[in-house]
Design goal:
This protein is an alpha/beta fold. It has 13 helices and 12 strands.
């Protein structure tokens, strides 16, 4: 038996999504920009998906821009807003130190091109303070970008309060909701954001497709230029099968949201309680609340997380040390580092992210395997608990 506890990296495609995409590949081959029957069939499928995605985030279909994933959506939001506001003299950007690299590296790239940037620190809770945003705001601030939920520790940011601070000084607010969409309720009106990014493969849709919600009236400069697709905001013939899959995944997620969130929160709490009880020297990283219901990040004294990950994988249990986009590096998690955790704790932490297919029996199997794996690694490295 193999157990998958890495749903924040990606989720398995829902069978209904795969079926809809297969039909789209064969039946909807027309170009959505064509005016004939075949083109209009494809366009109708895009319209259906656009409505489903808009419903998932509480927006209008006309405010949805389809993209090639969450990273592209983040780039369009940040680069597009920054370049659109540059002419007005707004050349300052604010983000936080716990953002996904799609945001952090985009802000850094703009910094190399002359934009002034501020990266906000957080404390051990992993929560961005509205006061920190207020202190960083300037008259030339164009955009504040703070994620809705963190991909490594699951903390939910006070996005509504942060957006209010940005709007007080005339700046736009973007949130990367890649790790919250489909897990918790999202209402872009209640959050009062201007731009919001999502990615299909985080809620049982296909990889390589996502969307950016853009509040009506917000000006964006396109990142990809060419034709007039997506209301002149994202050129290129749309990925019809992928977008169909995104739409079906969004509709399914919306229907399961309340019940699945409750189930996963109980399962996560069971995992945390049993792991902390069974493994001495283990502790949860970041604030326990508010968090997305499926995510926990736990450190284990005296071990290297990469070694524990491999040991668990050999026992059939898949977990991660953090963002899948940062895999292959031996550097400590930039999220845990930004929270002020030292290299020792950062390098001994694993992320467990649960999903629809996980059960209590799987959590209990983890607790059967994990203590022995941790103890073996501690013996091999001669690092008993308390030697940090």
């Amino acid at each position: 038996m193999r157990i998958y506890f890495d749903h924040n990296a990606t989720t398995p495609v829902d069978p209904a999504v795969a079926e809809a995409m297969t039909r789209a590949l064969t039946d909807l081959f027309g170009n959505p920009s064509s005016v004939h029957h075949y083109g209009q069939q494809a366009k109708a499928a895009l319209d259906t998906a656009r409505s489903a995605v808009a419903a998932l985030v509480g927006g209008e279909p006309s405010e949805i821009v389809f993209c090639g994933g969450g990273t592209e959506a983040d780039n369009l939001a940040i680069r597009g807003a920054a370049e659109a506001m540059e002419a007005a003299g707004r050349t300052h950007l604010i983000t936080s130190g716990i953002e996904h690299e799609a945001v952090l590296n985009t802000v850094k790239a703009l910094g190399r091109r002359g934009w002034r940037t501020t990266v906000l620190a957080v404390d051990a809770s992993g929560i961005v303070s509205p006061d920190a945003v207020r202190e960083a705001m300037r008259d030339d601030t164009a955009l504040v970008s703070v994620m809705h939920a963190n991909n490594e520790i699951g903390t939910i940011q006070p996005v509504g309060a942060l957006a209010h601070v940005a709007h007080e000084r005339g700046a736009l607010f973007h949130t990367d909701a890649v790790q919250s969409a489909g897990k918790i309720e999202i209402d872009v009106r209640a959050l009062d954001v201007d731009l919001l990014s999502i990615s299909a493969h985080k809620f049982y849709g296909p990889k390589g497709v996502g969307a950016l919600w853009v509040r009506r009236g917000v000006r964006l400069s396109p990142v990809i230029t060419g034709g007039r697709q997506e209301r002149n905001r994202r050129a290129g013939t749309e990925n019809v099968p992928g977008i169909v899959g995104l739409g079906v995944a969004a509709a399914i997620a919306a229907g399961k949201l309340a019940s699945e969130a409750h189930r996963l929160a109980a399962l996560r709490d069971r995992l945390e309680a049993r792991v902390l009880s069974a493994v001495p020297g283990s502790s949860v990283n970041g604030a326990r609340e508010p968090r997305v219901p499926n995510t926990t990040n736990i450190s284990f004294e005296g071990i290297e997380a990469e070694s524990l990950l491999i040991a668990l994988d050999l026992d059939g249990i898949a977990v991660s040390t953090g963002s899948a986009c940062s895999s292959g590096t031996l550097e400590p998690s930039h999220v845990l580092k930004a929270m002020g955790l030292g290299p020792s704790r950062s390098q001994s932490s694993l992320r467990f992210s649960l999903g629809r297919g996980n059960t209590e029996q799987e959590v209990d199997q983890l607790v059967v395997v994990l203590p022995g794996a941790v103890e073996k690694l501690r013996r091999l490295t001669r690092k008993p608990v308390g030697t940090r």
